[in-house]
Amino acid sequence: MVKKEELLKDYEQAEPRNVSKTDFPPNFVFGVATSAYQIEGACEEGNRGASIWDDFTHTEGKIIDKSNGDVAVDHYHRYKEDIDLIAKLGFDAYRFSISWSRIFPDGLGTKINMEGITFYNNIIDALLQKGIQPYVTLYHWDLPLHLHESMGGWLNKEIVKYFEIYADTCFASFGDRVKNWITINEPLQTAVNGYCTGIFAPGRHQHSSTEPYLVAHHQILAHAAAFSVYQRKYKDKQGGNIGLVVDCEWAEANSDKIEDKSAAARRLDFQIGWYCLKYSVNVISLN
């Protein structure tokens, strides 16, 4: 591994130069990414149900400047303009997320909202017409509010079956054109910031020694359920890829002392090993 000091020294001594696409391998994908709640707006249009972020941003004291995603950048009405901008900038791919509560307003999978299906069909078709490949995230933190209020959301293992129904519906509706799927975006952020620090929706912090672990575990199970249904029902005929997006704050030992190395390894276990390694012998042994 390159030491930070060596990397910074090399960077400082490097000659400035222009970088172009030809400097990258031909199969390198250049793209941009968004998430539904952050850009769509139209929170009460298209028969969309409320999400936990709608509730969180409208709760007094949660957002310092009182901003919310009610309108955002109005992507719901201006997606064609946005896709034109992506094409103009020359990107190969666009990663966006589907709002679970646009497909199932109550999250339960009892009735498909066809207005939501039409909206995402239109986005996918517009992207493909511009030669831009869609990368679709099923869950980017915006849980249907009904699931949270009626059953505790990610705290309840029952949510796994509802996520599987939702994922199955998306694969069936969009998978003929979408070849790259992401089940859950950064589950660590939901577990820690949603159920430990409380700075993300649903804003829980009262049981920070237990709830993040339940939430993380149920997200992993939900990912596995969605992955399984795709492999079983859709992989052969649709030929797509499916995976999980994780984030990690890297850690390195401060010295060669065994306690420093152990601390750095433990930090990485709780950052990324939680979701990507064998689940996770190290994390389990620490609890």
Automatic annotation (TrEMBL):
Query: Its Gene Ontology molecular function terms?
Result: hydrolase activity, hydrolyzing O-glycosyl compounds
Record's keyword annotation contains Hydrolase: yes
- Annotated keywords: Hydrolase
Q: Does the keyword Hydrolase apply?
A: yes
What Gene Ontology biological process does one annotation of this record name?
A: carbohydrate metabolic process
Q: Name one Pfam family in it.
A: Glyco_hydro_1
Report which superkingdom the organism of origin falls in: Eukaryota
Q: Which family does it belong to?
A: Belongs to the glycosyl hydrolase 1 family.
- Protein name per its UniProtKB record: Beta-glucosidase
Give the species: Citrus sinensis
